[in-house]
Design goal:
Shape: elongated
Structural class: mainly beta
Number of strands: 12
Distance between the termini: 50 Å
Helix content: 10-25%
Strand content: 25-35%
Number of helices: 5
Length: 209
């Protein structure tokens, strides 16, 4: 859960745990970037907190200016005022570890693994929200610069279902992989490719016309 102080309402989220749990959508700076940090650089941390406000989120992402580094332990001062955390103010001291850092103010020498999965795709709600495994996917010419061209279905959707726009969402590839990542190795296939899941072989096979 991260650092927790008994008399505080807030604690720091373990960003490394989140990156491990959501590898396609949650980017954490590389260890190489963290090693390059020095006093006066800024980082972002996730401050989770308790609140009696039903409208409050469960966390705030805020900047901290580093003042001291001791191995993988850091000290800094909060660089903005929280919107919801009552017992924390801009300028307050914050102690944290490398695992809590979600963003750095310096260039990261290691490309983000999540960038590959930022392009968007069309996916039915059977897959995205109802937990039905992907059964069919195909790639057509993209409709926009941020469109991957991938169209992803479970395979049992009717024509009437597909004609209803409320049954389909446009999301990042990463959002789909978070639900079902069996297709991750297929995503470099060119426009015109299509695949269907074959229960006999327990794998996706080409279904190109």
């Amino acid at each position: 859960m991260g650092l927790f102080h008994k008399k505080q309402s807030w604690w720091l989220a373990d960003a490394q745990k989140l990156a491990d749990e959501y590898p396609y959508t949650f980017h954490k700076p590389s260890l190489q970037a963290v090693a390059l940090l020095k006093p006066a650089d800024e980082v972002k941390l996730i401050f989770q907190f308790r609140s009696d406000d039903p409208e409050a989120p469960n966390a705030e992402r805020m900047s901290v200016e580093i003042t001291k580094i001791s191995g993988r332990r850091f000290r800094g001062i909060l660089d903005n005022d929280p919107a919801y955390i009552d017992d924390l103010r801009c300028g307050d001291p914050v102690e944290f570890q490398h695992k809590h850092i979600i963003q750095v103010s310096i260039d990261d020498p290691v490309p983000s693994k999540t960038d590959k999965y930022l392009p968007r795709c069309l996916v039915t709600h059977r897959v995205l929200y109802e937990g039905v495994p992907i059964g069919y996917l195909y790639r057509e010419e993209p409709d926009a610069d941020d469109d991957s061209g991938w169209r992803i279905l479970c395979g049992d959707e009717s024509r009437e279902y597909m004609d209803e726009s409320g049954n389909i969402s446009i999301v990042s590839l990463g959002a789909v992989l978070r639900e079902d990542d069996r297709i991750v190795d297929l995503l470099d296939a060119p426009v015109g490719s299509s695949f269907e899941f074959d229960p006999a072989s327990n794998s996706f096979i080409r279904a190109d016309n």
